[in-house]
Amino acid sequence: LPVTMAVALGGALAAHAVLLYDFEETTEGWEHEHATPVQGEVLKGRARHGSSSLAYDFSFGPKSMILHCRVKEGFPRDYSAPAFRGFSAWVYIPPGALQWEALMFARTGEDWKWSTGRTLKQLQPGWHRVQILREEIANLDHIQDIGVQVINAHAKTKARILIDQVEAIMDEPAADPGN
Question: Does the predicted model carry a pTM greater than 0.90?
Answer without folding.
Answer: no
